[in-house]
Each structure stands twice: as C-alpha cells, then as structure tokens.
Amino acid sequence: MSRITKIANLAIILTLVMTARALFAAGQDQTAPTVDPAAVESTAQENQSAPSAEAPANDNAEAVKCQCSEGCVCENACECNGVDKKCGEACNCVVKKADARKCECQEDPEREDCNCGGEKCACPKKSAFMAFLNKYPYFKKIVVGSFSYPLFLVFLIAVLGYLLGKIQVSGVGLGTAGVFLVALLFGHYGYADSSLFHRIGLVTVTESSLKSSMKLVENLGLLCFVTSVGFIAGPKFFLNLRRNATSYALLALVIIGSASLTCWAIIKCTDIGAPMAVGILSGALTTTPGFSAAKEALPVEELQDIVTIGHAVGYPFGVVGVVLFVQIVPKLLRANIEEEQKKINESTDDVHERPLPKHIFKLDPIGLGPLALAIILGVLLGKFYIPLPGGASFSLGNTGGALIVGLLLGHFGHLGPINMRISAEFLKSFREFGLVMFLIGAGVPGGGGFVEYVVKYGFILFVYGAIMELIPMILGFLVARYGVKLCLFNNLGSITGGMTSTPALGALINTAKTDDVAAAYAATYPVALVLVVLASQFLVTLA
Fold first, then answer.
1. Which residue of 98, 115, 259, 263 shows the fewest CB atoms closer than 10 Å?
2. Tens digit of each residue's pLDDT (9 = 90 or more) over 305-320
3. 143, 129 in Cβ contact below 8 A?
4. Are 108 and 60 contacting, i.e. CB atoms less than 8 angstroms apart?
5. Are the CB atoms for 289 and 533 separated by under 8 Å?
6. β pairing state of 385-387 and 393-395
C-alpha cells in the first residue's frame, strides 16, 4: 500500500471517528436532562423515608409524606412544616415531584428554564450541536431543512458510505457495501420518531414518511441494478448457459439445499421456532421473494411479524458476509486476476454481436429509454404467478422479471423496430447508481430496529444467521471448484447468484475487474430464486 493511500485511509478513519464521537456526544447531551437539585433531593428523601404525618400541599407540587434520615442527600437541612431541621432529625418534609410539574418547557423543549412558580424545572438539555445552531437561526434553518429532505439524506449517506468503503485492511475493503453500513448507522440514529436525530430536532421528517421514501429508493435501485446487469450479461449469457447450465443448476441446488437443511437443523435444535429461523434464512440470503413467501405461508399476523424480525436480524450480515467472501477468497488463493480474467473470457471468445435489422430507431441518444422500457416489461413479467400446492404461488417478482427481460433484450439487441443497444459505460454507471440506491433504501429502515433486536433477542440470533450463510457459501464454493471445476470468477459469480446477493455481485465485478462474472450470476440466480421460495414455504409449514 503506497504512502499516499495510507495517509488517505488514516484521514478517512479520523473523519469517521470524529463524526461518531460528535454523534455520541449529542446523544449524551440529549439523554441527560437538566434536573432541579431540589427535586432530586426531595425525591431521594421520599424513596428513603417512611411516612408519618400529613404535610401541607404546595400550589406547584404534590405534598408527599417523608422522613429525613442520616442518609439523606440534602446538603444541610430540610424544611418541615416551615421549620428548618438538620439532616438526621426526623421531620415531615414537603417533597416536590419533578414529573408532576406542568412547565412551559414541555411545550418548548429547547428552553433550559421554565416558569414553574419561579423555580427551576427538569427541562431536557439541548445538544451541543443544536445549541450552536440556535445561535445562528439562518444556518439552522438551512441545516434542519436539508436533513428533513429525504433525497439529501440519501446522497449524504452515499458520500459517507463511499468514504468508508475506501478504507482497506490488507487489501480488503467494503467498497460499495460501506454505503450499507452507513445507512444502518443513520437508520439507528435518525429513522424512528424516537431516535436521537428526531429528539434533538435535526431530523423532522416522520418515520412513516421516511419509510415510504426509503421503500421507493430501494425498489428504484433494485430495478436499475438488475436490469443493467441483464443488459451487460445478455450477449454472453446464453452461450455460457448452454455450456454450464447443469453446473449452475447444481450449484443453486447445493447452496439453497444446504442453507435450508441448516435452517431446519437450527429449528430442531433450538427453541427459536420456524418463523424466526426462516426469517433469518431469508435475511442471510438477502432474498425478498423468499421472505414474502414465508410470510404468505403463515396465516397469523403475529407469526408474520416474527418472520419480519428474523429477516431484519439476518439481513446485515447477509449483505456484508458475501461481499467480503468474494473479495477474501481470491486473496487467500493468491489468484492472478489477469489469468482468471483470461479463463472466464475463453469460454465466451466466440460470442459475436448479433446484427440488427435495418429499419430500427433509437428512443434516445444515451440509452435511458431502452432501460425504462426494459424495467416496465420486467415488472409486468414479474407479476405473472404460478399457483402452488397449499394455496401459495410463485412469481419472479420485480427482481427476477427485470433480470430476465434485461438478459433477453441485451442478447437480441432490439425489440421490434426499437434499438435496445446501450453503451457499456452508461450501463455500468446505471448499475452502480442502482446498487447504491438499493443499499440505502434497505439499510436505513433496517438500522432503525437493529440495536433493539440485538438487545431483545440476543446475539445468538446473529450467530444463527452467520451459520446459515457461511455453510452454503463454503459448500457451494467447494463443489464449484472441485466438483464441476468452474474457473474462479465463474465460481464466485455462481455463488453470488446462488445466494441471491445483489450487493455481492457489485463487489465481485470490482474485484474481478470484468463484467463477465455477471453471466454466472444471471445463470444461477433464477434457479436459486425458485428453490428459495419453495424452501421457505416448506420450512414454515412443516417444521
């Protein structure tokens, strides 16, 4: 690693540490309210004393019976019926409860003082950051207004995520997956209405509004990504599929089969139950169709909610785990990237671009029109469903539909008289944009309940998710390497397809420095998608 790279990594790390420290300090300021010392003293006396006689009421507080003791927290004396008593002497004190006071600060949280009969009130203390902004109302309006605009948050998360992804340890970095981790972090601090950024007034957009915005961002990103991947892989996809169709189908069966067996074993050996385990499985495989199939197979809403919790628990590791796997394996094997690129190209060297009809036209000069048309057709294809036994059904969904349409149009190059060929540079840009939008849209809501899930259900659930992910990945890799003998990048491409991991494909393309790995992903993905839907429904109904 060059000195410049080391300095850049150090600068990024220091920036992220300082940001985290500022957020932590803001949280400390917010969660430590300014409490009236007299109220603290009186409350402590109430907890330590036994009632003896009635005391006169106070207009602004509730009269409570108490008795001073040697352990009281009053500094010198307490007032008992108008008579001063020293600490240690028995007396009936009037205790004022802070939570019983009706103060103006409850309506205006930014005020440090309240008009409560001329006395101090336990008002929430402002964070240092917001206190600074309050001195400059003009800039406060700009900052708060920006943070309450969802698209501003989306692109802010993207920039910070790319900075995090640039940090490398022994040549391995998160890359674009760094965006996902920053999205999780923001979701924890700013997604829910009760989160830190909402409490200090930095983010004012409601949780319900942010949820709908992030869902739109997620779906937009997913469609843009998989459609671009289809167009890129299309010209070589069918040749690759003809030569290795059996291998890819076998790998999909091995990966989903081993993941399902692992899930079944965890259900039988633990007490977490089938809904939670299958939810974790769908999260570990980052499969939305499998997640939806599991919920549809359960008639009770409470059980569907458990599946949702499990999915949220397994999803973060499901994203990061496969991303790191496809980067670490080539380094462990000390693979020569250029030689592996030649191997994957050898299988498709005889692919020639199909000639286009003479009388065709372009929708637009850059290719956005063909992509939009492909997405429309993909969504329509994804809505077709096949009824399954037990009242369930199977469909490709938006992801599978857009991927297949992209593959077909990328292969044939036209749709009737419409030219569907798009430049590789534009497709790569659109693919990266889609991946980032997808990670942000999925990460922010996931981060909103991530810590709560850890606290409530324990870290062991994450261990189960890691097991469900690692076993099928390692087993699939070994079968592909020593069984069907795929070259390294076709091997890893089929792993990303078998794990239905969209983010991992992006990481693999960056690692392999070739888009040809997308063909193996595209060949394995549809088979794995069908199998994971069937497995999810089977596990929740029969486990």
1. 115
2. 677 778 878 887 888 8
3. no
4. no
5. yes
6. antiparallel
